[in-house]
Design goal:
With about 210 residues, the protein is α+β, with helices and mostly antiparallel strands. The chain has a single domain (about 1-210), classed as Ribonuclease Z/Hydroxyacylglutathione hydrolase-like (Metallo-beta-lactamase, Chain A, 4-Layer Sandwich), CATH 3.60.15.10. The protein is built from six helices and 13 strands. The strands form three sheets. Strands 1-2-3-4-5-6 form a six-stranded mixed β-sheet, with helices on one face. The longest helix has 15 residues, at about 195-210. The structure holds zinc ion (ZN) (2 copies). One zinc ion binds near residues 66, 68, 69, 150 and 189.
C-alpha cells in the first residue's frame, strides 16, 4: 500500500513471526525489514501490483536483527543483489536470534551486513537502542516520516526483556525521537500513526506508560 509519494507499506501477515515491511522508492530503492520468508512472496506480489520491482532493491535495512524482521533478507538479496545493513551491535545477538527463529518456527539463515552506515541524501539513520542494543530508526525529515521498528508502536513500546534490551535506553531513545517533527510514525508492528497531532498524542500516551 502506498502511504506517501515514495513510501510503501506491506503489512505484517501475522502478528507473531512477521513485521511491517516498508519500501522507500524514488531515488532510494530501499526495503526496510523484509520480515518472515514465509510471507515474502505475498508481499512481493503486492509490490508488483503497485509497480514496485523487487529486482530494483539496492539496499535492505533492518531496524534490528530479530528474525521476524530480518529472516527474509537473503531471499531479497538473491532476487536483487541488494546489500544489507543492520547496526553492528545487532551482530552480537545472532546466536540468540537463531533460537528465537526456531521458537517462532521462522526459517532463518545468517546474512552479511555491511559495517558502514548507509549515507543517503534525505535519510537519517538514528541509533535508537532499547528494544535491542543496535536498534535503529530511519528518519526522513522532508516527509516528516520515521520508521521505528520495535521502539514504539501505536499505543505501545517494544519489549526490553530480551538479550540486548534496556528500558533506560528505550526511554532515552523515545525522548530523542519525540523531539523530531513527525507526521508519519511507521512502526514494525500494528497500525501506522499519521498526522502530527496523532503522533504527538501517541507519544503522550506512551510517555504515561514508560515515563520517558
Ligand atoms: Zn524485535
Ligand atoms: Zn518485531
Amino acid at each position: 500500500m502506498r502511504i506517501l509519494k515514495h513510501i510503501y507499506l506491506y503489512r505484517e501477515r501475522s502478528r507473531i513471526g512477521d513485521c511491517n515491511t516498508y519500501y522507500l522508492g524514488g531515488k532510494y530503492n530501499i526495503l526496510v525489514d523484509p520480515g518472515n520468508p514465509k510471507f515474502i512472496q505475498s508481499k512481493i506480489e503486492e509490490m508488483e501490483r503497485e509497480g514496485v520491482d523487487i529486482k530494483q532493491v539496492r539496499l535492505v535495512i533492518n531496524t534490528h536483527a530479530h528474525p521476524d524482521h530480518s529472516a527474509a533478507n537473503n531471499f531479497i538479496v538473491k532476487l536483487s543483489g541488494a546489500k544489507i545493513f543492520v547496526h553492528p551491535l545487532e551482530l552480537r545477538s545472532f546466536e540468540f536470534n537463531k533460537i528465537i527463529a526456531r521458537f517462532l518456527n521462522i526459517e532463518f539463515s545468517d546474512f552479511k551486513s555491511s559495517s558502514e552506515t548507509p549515507k543517503e541524501e534525505g535519510i537519517q539513520i538514528l541509533h535508537t537502542p532499547g528494544h535491542t542494543a543496535g536498534s535503529i530508526s530511519i528518519y526522513l525529515p522532508h516527509s516528516k516520516t520515521i520508521i521505528t521498528g520495535d521502539l514504539i508502536f501505536r499505543g505501545a513500546v517494544g519489549r526490553t526483556d530480551l538479550p540486548g534490551g534496556s528500558s533506560s535506553d528505550l526511554r532515552n531513545s523515545l525522548a530523542t525521537i519525540s523531539k523530531l517533527k513527525i507526521a508519519y510514525l511507521l512502526p514494525g508492528h500494528g497500525e501506522i500513526v499519521s498526522g502530527e497531532k496523532e503522533v504527538q498524542k501517541n507519544f503522550k500516551k506512551v510517555k504515561e506508560l514508560v515515563k520517558f
